[in-house]
Structure formats: C-alpha cells, structure tokens
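Before a computer can learn anything about folding, someone has to put a protein's shape into writing. The three-dimensional part falls to structure tokens, numbers that each stand for a local backbone shape. The protein below has been through that process, and both of its lines are reproduced in full.
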Amino acid sequence: MARLIYIANASLDGFTEDAEGRFDFMVPDHEYHGYVNELVRPLGTLLYGRRMYETMAYWEANGDEPEDPPVERDFATLWRAAEKVVYSASLDAVETARTRLERSFDAEAVRALKASAPTDVGIGGPTIAAAAFAAGLIDQVDLFVSPIAVGGGRKPALPAGQRIALELTTEHRLASGVVHLGYRVCHI
C-alpha cells in the first residue's frame, strides 16, 4: 500500500501563510529546493487544494530554460511527470497536463488510491491535508520550519482541533536555518 505524505513549509510559529495570506517568508534556496526534490522524486501522484495547485501550476511552463538553476529544472520535470488531483468547488477547470479536478475531497477515493498506487502519494496544502488527517489517511509528515515567526496567520501547517500523534523519524538543519522534520503518523 502506498503512503500518503504531507509536505509543508511553515513559520516557526506554525503557519503556512502570514495574516495577509503571504508565504514569501519561505522562499527556498538551492539546498532547500534540492532537499524537497528528493522527497518529491518518488511520488507518483500529488493531491492539492485550489490555492496550492494555483501556486504549483507555475511549474507547468517554468523551470526548463537552460539558464534556470538545475534544482528548478529538476523540480519542474518531477512536477510535470506526476499525476495531479485538485480538490476545488470554485475552480472552473485545471490548466495543467496530467491533472484532474475533483469538486470535493473524497476520503474513500483517496483510500482506494493509496491501496492501488504503485508509488507513494503526496498531499500539499493545509486545508486539504486537514481533511486527510481527519480521515486518518496521512502516513508521513515532512515539515520544513523556517526561522521566522509571523505572529499569527491564516492557515496553520497542522490542523487546529485535531490531535495527531507523531513519531520523529528524521531531522536535518539546512544552512539557511530551515529545519526539516520528518514524522511518521501514529494511527491510534
């Protein structure tokens, strides 16, 4: 069975966005980007909420010019190769290849995907991840904590009101001060 892996960037105080909805405090340098690439490389399918999809759709048409940094070219290739599912009631259509639109998150469909997928599945975006956590679907969390506190924000990296037991499996400090914390979700 494939694992469902949540990859998230957060401020030190736990938010993916500041109070104005900005996430510019998490711009990855080459080391950070390369580290994320290695986490994404084995994923065959990526699940997104609308906002995360709109952010990530950048990679459909960017990151493949010879002057682009190698880590960006690598990520663009990985992103384009993955199947993508976008959960949104407000999007009219998706604009990227290998992407399908679902109007609502269906926990049983994701459970079936995990059971049949030949590779692990990634999930990105705190809102859709909260639904997956609530359904007991997430198996691993890869959290990148940036060395900044934003003083509150719109979206916590981990869902409010849900108790989630985690076991630390890996930790790595990047030169920028970003810390990667890898956790196994303890399904109790």
